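Appendix B, Record 12. Input sequence as logged:
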Amino acid sequence: MKKFYQFTLATAIIFALLVSISHFALAQGKVNIKDGPIPEKDWMVDPAGELNEDHSKNKNWITKFYGPDGNYENNGGFSASAPKDLIEEGTGGKLTQPDLSTIDGLKLTQTVDIGWKGANGGARKWTVFEIDPADAHHMNRDGPVDNMDMYAICVIDAPEDMTSVMSPAHDDHAQIWINGEKWYNNSRWTGAAMQVDYNIEVQLVKGANIVVYRCGESGGHAYMNLHFDDKTHAEVDIYPDKAKDQNSFFDEIAGVLAVDPVGKLATTWADIKRND
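Logged structural output:
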């Protein structure tokens, strides 16, 4: 009887562990994009095999971002605007979308503002803003509710090189760059503000990782949400954190980026890596 009890107890423990692991895997989501970053020739190609996963119970949705203080307006619909580099357009070529997702590019926002045409929103400065992931219209930002593009930036400070899983939800066309590389492109809306179609395996480097998230919207719901896997959120620091504007944001990340005083030559990522 004692042996039978021990066998039954062991079986129960194994079953509980399997259930726990399966629940953990479900909470994390199935990874269905693993071959990034995207080659430039495929930058505008949509992925296949959407998951339609409900992540509404996930606690890791990022709520604070850095970016232009208003959207690009009257974009002609996201299919017309998506192939255009609106950062290059707005800065006269001083910055591009891939550049913006690098340390040097992020630093340039301290001195380079956005100057879109008046019909597209006009002059924009860089600031910190907050979104409500549960709000399916949070992209509107007190501007036009249709036909706009929004940019959102965050800095992930990783303790070491690591593989991470990125989960975006968006309406409509989303594009994501990390550290100068494009990792995600999808012109199809995900169906709900916290519904995820793709869990993307990405590579983070030790120290600063700059994430640029762009979403183009035509009509109806307008949201762009993002979270990473539980392990990543437990191990990294994500900024903005307490910052409320551009100055406090750069104060907050000074130790992460080695931010130079305005007007000084920016330290490159290669320089920082050599000094590690």
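The two ends are 61 Å apart (CA to CA).
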